[in-house]
Design brief:
6-stranded mixed sheet, 22 strands, single chain, 37% helix, alpha/beta, Ald_DH_CS_CYS
Length: 502
C-alpha cells in the first residue's frame, strides 16, 4: 500500500505477485467520478527482462506438458470466471466506466475464447498422408514457438487479454502480458484466477508500463511472437519494430466502421441497432458503428435516429438506468469534444450535441460525453477521417446502394461493416462487393464467435492471422513437416541421386 492507502498493482513474475521497484507510477482512476483506485507501476527494464526470463525457463517444461493436462486448466478457468463474473464486471466498471451489463458482456466474450482453448486437443491437430511415395509417409506437427507477448488496450480489459493468453498457453507457449495501465485491475483478477486454475509458475507473467515496456517486448530476442490490440499509431509502431526483430506479429488497430441502411430495412430494429452500436460503451469500441450511410428514402430517418439517441441515459456504469457511461480519461473527453467542435467548423450539421451533459453530484467531474449525431458528413471532414472513439455517429447520404458501397470501400479501414435490408439479393451483393474483413447483415457489430476468427482487414490490421479461433492456433505454432520412410532390415534401395521419392 502507498502512503495515501492506494493499493499498488503488482507484477506477476515466475508465479509470484511482486511489488515493482519502479520510481514511476500512474493512478488508476474511476472515469465517472475521478476517484483514485490504485497505483500502477511502469516496470523497470530489469523487471521486464525477469518476466521474459521466467517465461523462457518455464517453456522448457510447459511445451512438454500433455495436451489434455493443458486443456483441463482452461476447463477449470472457464468455471472460475463464470463463478466470479459479477465481481469481475463490477471491477471492470469501476476502472473503465462501461455499464455493468456491458462489462459482463466484456467478460463473457473473453470466456468464450477460454472455452475454445479447452478444446485445444482438437484444434492443434496436424495432418498425415500415408504412402506419398514407396513406403514414405508425410505428416505435420504444430509445435509451440516459445515466449509470446500480448499488449492489450483499455476498452476491453477482460475480453482482449482472454483473447490472448489462453490460446497462447494452451498451444504450449509461455506468455508475458502487458495490460493497459489505465485499467489493469480486472486483468489482474483474471490472472489470479488463471493461477488458481493451475497455470504453472512462469507460464503466465504480467508487466505494466508504457512505450519503454512495449519496446522491450518488441526487441527482446527470446520473445517469438507479439499480439497487439489498440490504436493504429501504436500498432504500426509495434508491427514495424517487432517484425524487424524477426518476430511474428499480429496487430488489430483502428477503424471507421460503416453501416449501410437501405430504405427497405426494418425501421425500428435498424434504429435500435444503430443507436446501440454507435453509443454503447461510449463509442469506445474498435467495432463501433461510427458512420451510417443512409440510402435513398432512408435519408429521412435522421430525426427518428436523433429521437432514439436522446432517450439514452448518460451516467455512471454502476447505475442500472445508465445506457452510456464515461470516456476512459479527461484527455479522451477533451479529444472527443475537440473533434465535435471541428466537425461543426468543417460544415457538418450537428443534429445532437452531447457535450457537457447535465449530471448530479460527483458525476459532474466525470469524463462524460453524451450521444452526438452529425448529418451532412462528407469524406475529407475530420469527423469522417479520424477514429473519434467516442459516442459520435456521422451520417453520410447516398443515392444508391452502389454509391454506398463505393463510399465504404474508399475508406482505408477495414475492421467491420454492416448492411440493413430485408432483401436477400441486396445482402448477397453487399457481401460479395464490400472490401471489409467482417460483414454484418442486419447485425451492427459482426464480431465472430471463437469457432471462427476475428478477420479485420486493410488499414485496421497488420499481420495475416486473426487473434483467436483456428487462425490463432497457426499464429502461435510452427508447422513442422516430417517426411519419413522406415526400411525393413533386409531391403536395399540403392543410391538415388534424383530429388524424387520413389
Amino acid at each position: 500500500m502507498s502512503r495515501d492507502n492506494l493499493p499498488h498493482v503488482p507484477l506477476l513474475i515466475n508465479g509470484e505477485f511482486v511489488q515493482s521497484k519502479s520510481t514511476e507510477w500512474r493512478e488508476v482512476v474511476n472515469p465517472a467520478t475521478q476517484e483514485r483506485l490504485a497505483r500502477v507501476p511502469m516496470a523497470t527494464a530489469d523487471e521486464v527482462a525477469a518476466a521474459i526470463a521466467s517465461a523462457q525457463a518455464a517453456f522448457k517444461t510447459w511445451r512438454k506438458t500433455p495436451i489434455g493436462q493443458r486443456a483441463r486448466i482452461f476447463l477449470k478457468l472457464q468455471q472460475l470466471i463464470r463463478d466470479n463474473i459479477k465481481s469481475l464486471a463490477a471491477t471492470l466498471t469501476a476502472e473503465q466506466g462501461k455499464t455493468l451489463a456491458d462489462a459482463e458482456g466484456d467478460v463473457f466474450r473473453g470466456l468464450e475464447v477460454v472455452e475454445h482453448a479447452a478444446n485445444i486437443g482438437s484444434l492443434q491437430m496436424g495432418e498425415r498422408a500415408h504412402n506419398v511415395a514407396g513406403g514414405v509417409d508425410t505428416y505435420t506437427l504444430l509445435q509451440p514457438l516459445g515466449v509470446c507477448a500480448g499488449i492489450t488496450p483499455f476498452n476491453f480489459p477482460a475480453m482482449i487479454p482472454l483473447w490472448m493468453f489462453p490460446m497462447a498457453i494452451a498451444t504450449g507457449n509461455t506468455f508475458v502480458l502487458k495490460p493497459s495501465e489505465q485499467d489493469p485491475l480486472v486483468t489482474m483478477r483474471l490472472v489470479e484466477l488463471a493461477l488458481e486454475a493451475g497455470v504453472p509458475p512462469g507460464v503466465l507473467n504480467v508487466v505494466h508500463g508504457g512505450e519503454h515496456v512495449v519496446n522491450a517486448l518488441c526487441d527482446h530476442p527470446d520473445v517469438k511472437a507479439i499480439s497487439f490490440v489498440g490504436s493504429t499509431r501504436v500498432g504500426t509502431h509495434v508491427y514495424e519494430r517487432a517484425s524487424l526483430a524477426g518476430k511474428r506479429v499480429q496487430c488489430m488497430m483502428g477503424a471507421k466502421n460503416h453501416a449501410i441502411v437501405l430504405p427497405d430495412a426494418h425501421k425500428e430494429q435498424t434504429l435500435n441497432a444503430l443507436a446501440g452500436a454507435a453509443f454503447g460503451a461510449a463509442g469506445q469500441r474498435c467495432m463501433a458503428v461510427s458512420v451510417a450511410v443512409l440510402v435513398g428514402e432512408a435519408r429521412k430517418w435522421v430525426p427518428d435516429l436523433v429521437a432514439r439517441a436522446k432517450k439514452l441515459s448518460v451516467g455512471a456504469g454502476d447505475s442500472a438506468s445508465t445506457d452510456v457511461g464515461p470516456l476512459i480519461s479527461c484527455a479522451a473527453r477533451e479529444r472527443v469534444e475537440a473533434l465535435i467542435a471541428r466537425g461543426v467548423e468543417d460544415g457538418a450539421q450537428l443534429e445532437l450535441d452531447g457535450r457537457i451533459p447535465s449530471l448530479p453530484g460527483a458525476l459532474k467531474e466525470g469524463n462524460f460525453v453524451g450521444p452526438t449525431i452529425f448529418s451532412g458528413v462528407r469524406p475529407g471532414m475530420s469527423v469522417y477521417e479520424q477514429e473519434i472513439f467516442g459516442p459520435v455517429l456521422c451520417i453520410v447520404e447516398a443515392e444508391t446502394m452502389d454509391e454506398a458501397i463505393a463510399i465504404t470501400n474508399a475508406n482505408p479501414n477495414g475492421n467491420g461493416t454492416a448492411i440493413f435490408t430485408q432483401s436477400g439479393a441486396a445482402a448477397r451483393k453487399f457481401e460479395e462487393e464490400i472490401e471489409v474483413g467482417q460483414v454484418g447483415i442486419n447485425v451492427p457489430i459482426p464480431v465472430p464467435v471463437p469457432l471462427f476468427s476475428f478477420t479485420g482487414s486493410r488499414g485496421s490490421k497488420l499481420g495475416d492471422l486473426g487473434p483467436y479461433g483456428k487462425q490463432v492456433v497457426l499464429f502461435y505454432t510452427q508447422t513442422k513437416t516430417v517426411t519419413a520412410r522406415w526400411f525393413e532390415d533386409d531391403v536395399s534401395t540403392g543410391v538415388n541421386t534424383t530429388i524424387a521419392l520413389k
